[in-house]
Amino acid sequence: MAKEGKSNQFVAIRSMFLSGSIKRMKDIEMLYPTLVAKTLGINHSRYIQKLYKPEEFSIKQIIAMSVILELNPQMILDVILKQVGTQAKSGKKKTVT
Q1: Which among 50, 68, 85, 95 is placed 20 to 30 Å from 60, CA to CA?
Q2: Residue 68, pLDDT above cutoff 90
Q3: Are 30 and 9 a contacting pair, CB within 8 Å?
Q4: CB 83 within 8 A of CB 28
Q5: What domains does the chain contain, in order, with CATH numbers?
Q6: Rg, the chain, Cα only
Q7: Quick check: helix, strand or coil at residue 20?
Q8: pLDDT tens digits, residue range 2-55?
Q9: Mean pLDDT, range 43-71, rounded to an integer
Q10: φ, ψ for residue 50 (rounded to 5)?
């Protein structure tokens, strides 16, 4: 029963990835963060920090997240790469010559 409950909780996150409604990793911050962090083997505050700086997720953690969410790891990686790319663009200052 406990495993089924855990699986049901991950379905919400999985559905959001599949629908394309997750644009940034921090979009899943409020969806069972303690459960996801525990399942990934990291503490809660570190998990939240990684959602805001997703480039800090290791490949091993991305793969583990894809396994628990039953997703292709590329789907998670695409969100991370898009978020990191957006942060890089907004962080650049234009110089006027």
Answers
A1: 85
A2: yes
A3: no
A4: no
A5: 2-91 (1.10.260)
A6: 15
A7: coil
A8: 556 667 889 999 999 999 999 999 999 999 999 999 999 999 999 999 999 999
A9: 97
A10: -70, -30
